[in-house]
Amino acid sequence: DVKVTQSSRYLVKRTGEKVFLECVQDMDHENMFWYRQDPGLGLRLIYFSYDVKMKEKGDIPEGYSVSREKKERFSLILESASTNQTSMYLCASSRRGTAYEQYFGPGTRLTVT
Amino acid sequence: GEDVEQSLFLSVREGDSSVINCTYTDSSSTYLYWYKQEPGAGLQLLTYIFSNMDMKQDQRLTVLLNKKDKHLSLRIADTQTGDSAIYFCGEDSNSGYALNFGKGTSLLVTP
User: Fold this and answer.
1) How far apart, in whole angstroms, are the C-alpha atoms of residue B35 and residue B44?
2) Could you give the percent of chain A with pLDDT greater than 90?
3) Between chain B's N and C termini, which has fewer beta carbons within 10 Å?
């Protein structure tokens, strides 16, 4: 059974803290994605990666960075968390050439106070 | 990304048909998709349609594509309470890797 796991389901951090969100997939997928989901705004792409050490900005990369040192792991980093980054963060992966079939993790609900 | 539009809410009675509509923007999209998000879970690919097709049927699901109007719809026959979820319409993005999603339609099925 294919699986995308995220390190935490719920996370509470303080403003200014550095936050790491981890995502691991066990399907040997080349592509990995980070989205944030907000009520009324749907899913918005933050960053994606199509190979190890490769990354591309999505629609809303400001305030975020990513790291992909191993094929199975894609990390989202909030260098200095702010309250407007309170959101649900979803990680996804897909095989090269089949971007439409993305497999999603369960999400991390991050609250920044 | 460009906007994929869909209505935010739909409520139907159990046993009725549900129709969720979507308007997409990129006429060069190769595929168009419907994803389903159940409460507390990530998204799951429900079905997709190749852009040169008009219709695709998969058990209780029927996808209709009108390329001229850039309109995509998902019909769920004999809707069940377990179909209550958020449904996202999606199209290929310009990156060739990611997808543009609509804001999602919350489907509520009442007994």
Assistant:
1) 5
2) 86
3) C
